[in-house]
Amino acid sequence: STAANTGNGQVYYLSSKPEVVDQFQELADAFTDETGIPVTIQTATTDSYDSTLTSELGKSNAPTMFNVSGYSTFAKIMQYLEPMQDTDVYGLLTDEGKDVTMSAKGNDYTVPFVAEYNGIIYNKAILANYCAKNYAVVKSAEDITDFATLQSVVESIQEHKDDLGLDGAWATPNLDSSGSYRFGDHMARVPVSAELRDDGKTFAAEITGKYLNNFKAMFDLQSNNNPEDKALFSSFPLDDSTSQFALGKVAFYNNGTWIYSQIKDNEVSDDDIGVLPYWMGIPGEEDYSVVAIFDTQWGVNKNASEKDKKATLDFMKWMVSSDKGKEVMAKEMGFAVPYATFGESDQPENPVTIAAESYLDQGKKFIYNVNVPNQQYKDNINNALTEYVQGTSDWSGVESAFINGWKTEWANNEKALGFLPES
After folding, report:
1. b/e for 201-221, b at 16 or more Cβ within 10 A?
2. In terms of pTM, does the model score above 0.85?
């Protein structure tokens, strides 16, 4: 970029996705080669992204574009965001993409650049082997269409794990900081989504915990049917849980599309990767499939110079419309990108994504991620789950973290920020 011409502006992109830092650098270099506009890429890890973003936005050479990762980040930095609804890149979004932008006060301030999905990833080969046994409770994985059946299969596999050559039915739940997002964040949003659905809302400042017993049943199923002792959950790393699944030692593992990069090239072939919804026994869940996440979106710094804003918007548009941009984002990053410019040949080869999106062909709807107030809310749920599995507290602590924590943290947000999400 030292040879690039800054007369046409420059781009400084602060990203929160370290798993694709090389691919974004590849895009930056290609865009500079093609246009002469220099692009600087900086990446912060997930747990330090918000603090890095806040620090960088206060500098004179602040990022011209950055990731906005969920509502809590959006609420904190909205005053830095340029409205996007009149830009070319916004116009290229699919209808679904436009529906999930982060909006307030009549403006759309962000644009999504990846649709991610999470649910229960399973090993088809292990399930096929199990279904061939005389003790199997189902004839095929396709028979697992509700929580009661899933529970019967998981408990049966756990009972016969030695005969099946497994360490357990489910990958070990890890409640340490590396993987606690699977429980206090992603899985925890499902019962909240269902309660809001019943009330015809996408946001409420208070919840009742109507479906927390369903969440408990799913959590208990995992915590009672895995290879490790419950006392280890709080210190068990995500990499080890992932390895249990990737090495074919367990049949089920709850996570999302992003984890494929750590599963591939191990003992589970792409053809043997399937995805189930978070069956919890919630009424009406048979109409839905996996959780769709659009939490990570792009924002443009409204305080950047006009030249830099134009260069940044051109870079965004180029990434989702040029042949090079589409190739890298869909094939190398493995992203399902919510832009109308991506045709059938521009779709990712990530088998978790393919399995998740196949539910659309069955007429199933996605469960869209609801807004949660902040990281503190998620941490409080995970802390309560840890005490519950260790026996130092009962389930009422988890209920309080869900229900009272929701009310408290949204009230804190409203006091600090002056507004709440629109329903």
Report:
1. eeebeebebbbbebbbebbeb
2. yes
